């Protein structure tokens, strides 16, 4: 019974948060997800190439490149979401301007 109550509360909390998003934030979220998905594909390809690399140096370089691709994508995705969150002046987001 207790687990069911916790699950119900969690469901309502998530639904409440989703209702706070405006259309621009939802679109930005989808765009950010697409950026990250494309980066994951590219990073996976680089990691697969690293696994097949003939030397340790080549493997390390490819793995570093894969990490850089994902880090750059995370930064781009965060920027897209932050820009959408500030369209309302930051009134409904954690990044409210000072």
Topology:
Layout: H1 2-19, H2 23-51, H3 56-85
Protein name: Lipoprotein
Biased composition (Low complexity): 49-71
Region (Disordered): 49-98
Description:
There is one protein chain. With 98 residues, this protein is mostly helical. It has three helices and no strands. It has helices at residues 2-19, 23-51, 56-85. It is elongated, with a radius of gyration of 19 Å. The mean pLDDT is 79. It comes from Brevundimonas variabilis.
Looking at the structure, what is the overall shape?
elongated
Stretches where pLDDT is under 50 for at least 5 consecutive residues are: none
Q: Outline the biggest β-sheet.
A: none
Q: Helical region count?
A: 3
Question: What is the alpha-carbon Rg in Å?
Answer: 19 Å
Q: What percentage of the residues does DSSP assign to strands (E)? A: under 5%
Q: Which structural class best describes the helix and strand composition?
A: mainly alpha
Instruction: State the end-to-end distance.
Output: 45 Å
Helix percentage = over 70%
SSE pattern, N- to C-terminal: HHH
Output mean pLDDT.
Answer: 79
The total of beta strands comes to: 0
Short overview:
With 98 residues, the protein is mainly α. It contains three helices and no strands.
Feature tags:
single chain, 98 residues, mainly alpha, 0% strand
């Amino acid at each position: 019974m207790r687990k069911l109550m916790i699950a119900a509360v969690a469901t309502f909390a998530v639904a409440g948060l989703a209702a706070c998003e405006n259309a621009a934030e939802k679109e930005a979220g989808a765009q950010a997800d697409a950026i990250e998905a494309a980066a994951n594909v590219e990073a996976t390809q680089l990691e697969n190439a690293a696994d097949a690399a003939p030397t340790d140096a080549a493997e390390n370089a490819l793995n570093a490149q894969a990490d850089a691709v994902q880090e750059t994508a995370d930064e781009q995705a965060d920027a897209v979401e932050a820009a959408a969150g500030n369209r309302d002046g930051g009134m409904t987001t954690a990044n409210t301007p000072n």
